[in-house]
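Q: I'm teaching a short session on how sequence maps to structure, and I want students to see two examples side by side rather than one. Could you give me a first protein with its sequence written out and its structure tokens following it? Keep the formatting plain so it prints cleanly on a handout.
A: Of course. Example one:
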Amino acid sequence: MPHEPKTVAGVEIVPLCDAVGPMGGRIRRPLPELFPGAALDPDAEWILHFHCYLLRAGSRTVLVDTGIGGAGSPAASWAPVPGRLGEELAAAGCSPAEIDVVVLTHLHSDHASGSVVAGEPAFPNARFVIQQAELDSVAGAMRDRVVVPLQDRIQAVSGHAELLPGIRLLHTPGHTPGHQCVEVGEVVLAGDVVLHPVQLTDPTITYRYDDDPEQAVRSRAGILGRAAVIAPSHFADPFVGVGLRE
């Protein structure tokens, strides 16, 4: 079942847990290797929660990220497929056809693979909003199996933009060139700007798989400086107070 929703600035935010599982599946990496410089137990297992978020804003319905996808998705080599996004949406009282807009924070396989099912858009009435910088940089399976089938439905944006009244896109590069967050009032749906709680204590801690670690630090500091609450993709808790605006 979905977590408890939060209503902010007239927008209902419903966390959807697509999956839970260890980072890397069978290929485990010590946490200090993933987050260089962090004081983390090398024997501890990093269990990821794969969250997507449903936004209800008046008559409009927005889905932020589409998760890990089915058994044959691009995420299958490392993530606990199949994901449960469809079941989570149903439990929240929403069908795929009711989604008006899908925002993809970025085009990594655990955030966007659920966009396509059997070569067709999984959300048949939605436009898919992606940063142009992300589209310019994506390659391989994510381009061939996700972007190409969606190409007639993609709305490319460049930089910060208003998505709907009360919902704003924030271009936050670093993890990927076109990573974006979604801001709803004092809450920021953070995607992979913040991956592990240790980065809340020290935003300068980088992540092994950031495309541009220095830029990722700047983007993370910016988000933590403007949000009272973040809705991270991979924490156990879907809403985390950061205390800087509370």
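Q: Perfect. Now a second example for contrast.
A: Example two:
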Amino acid sequence: MSLALSSARSHPGKVRARNEDALLERAAEGLWAVADGMGGHQEGARASRLVVERLAELALGGSLDERLEQVRLVLHEVNRRLTQDLTVLADSAERLIGTTVVALLLADGEAACVWAGDSRAYLWRGNQLYQLTRDHSLLERLVEVEGLTPQQATRHPSARALTRALGAQDELALDIVRFELLAGDRLLLSSDGLHGALEERTLGAALSLPTPAVALERLLDGVLQGPARDNLTAIVIHPLEAA
């Protein structure tokens, strides 16, 4: 029996020929993930695909803590592969082959989100949208550490640069947030091609819709009606434990 109802989709957008995003949907086991690859040509797609392929192989079981540890170990393993094996095979020794990742786990009425990079997780609860993740980006650092306003930070030429990602450094630092599920909770995982193109009120309005499929359609349509310059990926999740 599935732990949640979910709907997932990835789209290349209107400009890029290749889709470097990848997604994983394992509703029966309570695991979902979005990865946004980087590296140009085929390498970004290869990196994001490696994440979801390895997570798809997991024989998930046990408590939320045990499942979270399984996912964490896989992400560290993928980071080693990206920083060592794949980078050596790249055309240039300076090329970074990496990927963001945001993964969501459900078990025993609880949820855990683990991430690196700027792919995000959102929670819709009590008609309020909450951003569960915090971007690992220069923009976020300029706001938090340097005290710039978001508007000032956005003007920095490298504002979109990531400060963490799988494949970016030998030692991977992951952030994790855990919380109890409540009745009516709705969850969204997305790459920056989706959430970067929509206002928060638009995200919330979509998540308030009755089914994951309808919410997902609203989100993607909202982006594709605009320039859609980036790949876009989204997964909408309605936990059954909280229903």
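Q: What should students look for in example two?
A: Point them to this: The radius of gyration is 17 Å. Also worth mentioning: The chain has seven helices and ten strands.
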